[in-house]
Amino acid sequence: MASARMSTLAFLQGAISRLEAQTLPQESERVALGHADADATLQGGLIRGALHEVFARQTRQSPAATGFAAGIAGRLAKQRTLLWVRQDFVEWEAGALSMSGLAELGLDPRRLVLVRTQDAEAALRVAADGLACDALGAVVLDLWGEVRAFDLVASRKLTLAAQSSGVSCVMLRTSAEPAVSTAETRWTVQAARSPLRPEWGAPVFDAELVRNRHGQTGQWIMEWNCDECLFRDVAAYSQPVAAAPADRPYPAQVVARREIAGLARRAG
How far is 36 from 48, CA to CA, in rounded Å? Predict the structure, then answer.
């Protein structure tokens, strides 16, 4: 009996190894993010027709993770229709997906199809059906919390559907811990400080690549260029900034001491 179990375990391990080796990086199309260091680590960019995961570091970072997921999904979709499958509970906790916000990111809301589902199980089914449609460019699967239905089998189903059609899947997770999956890449994302500029600042992300099936991992501060729809290094504001007068600190301290003295006299 024990030998039969060991034989079955060895067979399953071998099957998993063969499945994991099906997609070779040199045979897959890669889409550059635009950020030089990240693309070098990814050996040219994200693999199309694969599963990629994006996690919010904390629940309050869900807007940043959503923006990052939208950015990489837009890159992977290549101007084709993007299907966004969203569990209803995500909207209750994090708010509705803003079409004007997507437009400000440089993405075309007219190319977005939004599907809301009552539960995670329905969302997984819709995403799998979407991945089977090669007319789409990418599918975003937006789930909240720990999802029992998303296990290694469900993950493999999404990966096989993506590989078969060439449609990329971006899984966006909030209030959840990473689990074993067949994802090519896994990112954890939070908002980063935008550089000081006179105009409205571009979105900046602190993005950590924590899983990369075919290479190294890394962490970068990445700015989203809304005009070119790509990531890049944070661009410093190049215009000169006027220096503070050298004599300002001393008079300011004198005035402050006088004001304090005046208050003390009035209080007395």
Answer: 18
